[in-house]
Amino acid sequence: MAALQQTPISFRSKLPPPITSAATTFPKTLSFSLTRRFPVLRRNTGARMSASAASSYAVALADLAKSNNTLEATSADVEKIDKVFSDPSVFSFFMNPTIEEEKKRKMIDELAESMNLLPHMANFLNILIDSRRIDLINDVTKEFERVYNGMTETELAVTVTDPSLVAGFTVRYGNSGSKLIDMSVKKQLEEIAAQLDLSDIPVNV
């Protein structure tokens, strides 16, 4: 027993030595003229975490735009980006794991130039690529619209088509749709009918 305790035990690793290559590349570091940084978020497949991540990115972008006095212009850029990434072929390109990130960043630069995007908007998209969160882009654009509306106190208007209105239109607006503008012919006919029911309508003889 004592002999066993005095015998040194050593372990040898059978793993191959790490491979090093001069061609190994790392994502380039992006920087902003401002000190504000976008959140670094871990990947998670949960819907709740994805929604939270999209909201965090949207808030960070909106705050940056507001502090840089480019909130309106950034909102316009977000609308452009939303239309571009709504194209399945574009979205598939950026989601393809076999395409190098450098090629994706180059494509972003080309899109930014062709669409005349603000510099921080192009950097924002590159950050999503480097963080492997470009899959959130459509959620981010929707969240940005919500944040933007809150910052500018914008009320969303919804137009509803109703065949029973005969002609004209009605518009509900406000955050809860509680306000109504009724410009329908049906409404006008109802008002005329109400007037005809009154007994004190003056009659010119």
Automatic annotation (TrEMBL):
Record flagged with keyword Ion transport: yes
UniProt keyword terms in alphabetical order: ATP synthesis, Hydrogen ion transport, Ion transport, Membrane, Transport
One Pfam family matching this protein: OSCP
Domain of life: Eukaryota
SUPFAM superfamilies membership: N-terminal domain of the delta subunit of the F1F0-ATP synthase
Gene Ontology terms, MF aspect: proton-transporting ATP synthase activity, rotational mechanism
Compartments reported by the entry: Membrane
One GO CC term, this protein: membrane
Keyword Cell division: no
Segments traversing the membrane: none
Chief place where the protein resides: membrane
Similarity comment: family membership: Belongs to the ATPase delta chain family.
Oligomer and partners: F-type ATPases have 2 components, CF(1) - the catalytic core - and CF(0) - the membrane proton channel. CF(1) has five subunits: alpha(3), beta(3), gamma(1), delta(1), epsilon(1). CF(0) has three main subunits: a, b and c.
Name of the protein described by the UniProt record: ATP synthase delta chain, chloroplastic
Lineage: Eukaryota, Viridiplantae, Streptophyta, Embryophyta, Tracheophyta
